[in-house]
């Protein structure tokens, strides 16, 4: 799909990740220092060129996290973030002193509205501070990045004047941030071209773009910056950040990867680690990824339309411009819903070793449509149940018969679960404890189903409001290198989770053929 490009024409784009600094400034996204270190390790594995791990002067915990990341990640450039304030610079210098490669990133406002109402300083005062602080920082490190904050709302003449001043004092990277996500792509591209062409010494430094997403233009503006001469783009995983967030790492990288022919640019990102990185950040920061989020959203590579499904089953390139599996995203392109056609039903059944054709397929399809009309999406466990009812060829390997949970403020949660094995009809009851009711229930089910898959992910959604609200639980499990998803809806959300987990395990059992007795033989 991507046209071949002469390697000599390619421009290498540096990926500067600020998930742990700007991203963590998202309301409610604060994480523990230990979690920062785990995410930083994954960012290094992903292949980002530079990591801005925090704001060292802001707290002792923040300082310690930046310090440990600097010591541990010797193969990645570490960026010390600081206001144009001596104390900030000292903290950033000390926190990053053990890094194999480091730079300092200084910033000060440049727009009149910031100068008048935030800093309450004149342009001359701000220029003086910028010069003095860049000169002060230069004695500690060779690489100095400088950001005239809110540059897209400042006059171009003053931005050029500030850029000239800091270059003269030793700045090596000029970042022109669209702090409020205000710029249009053509304006942002022109800003880079003008500063590069008109600022004295502008041809001796590198240029960086830092875009916010208030108007949904962060990725578009970052690509425009590349066309304008920027060779570094500042991003966050999942596009998190203040207000509407920052330029999304995964969207920017895949835009460059997919359209190399148009952009004549490349990155050093290992795209196979994109999905793992997205999931890790989402979990640790407790920030869910929107279903329709490009690249990593649940619906990004899923198709419900019968026309689309038919085309995909014949040739993936008909309706996909990227390969999700290359990014580590589980292959689940077909979503069964009311718009799905017979080809999709037949294909999904075949994946479980069930051949449907002729009148049998028509009967299953008619029953499927009734369920799909009522609830929009039909999960695999529901489809298998429909097939069983229509063909008498299938019975759930395991059925949840009873569940009880005891909770309290001063005690561990205790659960008891009874499950019936299909075919034999034998029922087994087990009890278990957990830090929470869901953990206790899952621990029970794993005792009853020896082949139970690894509980990987849980999504909870409220489907209504009020005291009689129904909750939807979507459980994803991992078994034999494949992912299976079970869904259940109930007023009791714990029961819904249990039913969804059993449903996902049933899918794994049916696909692999492993039953209770076989699992016992393997372990015995």
TrEMBL record:
GO terms for biological process: L-leucine biosynthetic process. Keywords: Amino-acid biosynthesis, Branched-chain amino acid biosynthesis, Leucine biosynthesis, Manganese, Metal-binding, Transferase. InterPro entries: 2-IPM_HCS-like, 2-isopropylmalate_synth_dimer, AIPM/Hcit_synth_CS, Aldolase_TIM, LeuA/HCS_post-cat, LeuA_allosteric_dom_sf, LeuA_bact_synth, PYR_CT. Its EC number is 2.3.3.13. PROSITE patterns: AIPM_HOMOCIT_SYNTH_1, PYR_CT. It is an enzyme of class 2 (transferase). Pathway: Amino-acid biosynthesis; L-leucine biosynthesis; L-leucine from 3-methyl-2-oxobutanoate: step 1/4. One of its GO terms (molecular function) is 2-isopropylmalate synthase activity. The keyword Amino-acid biosynthesis applies. The keyword Cell membrane does not apply. This is 2-isopropylmalate synthase.
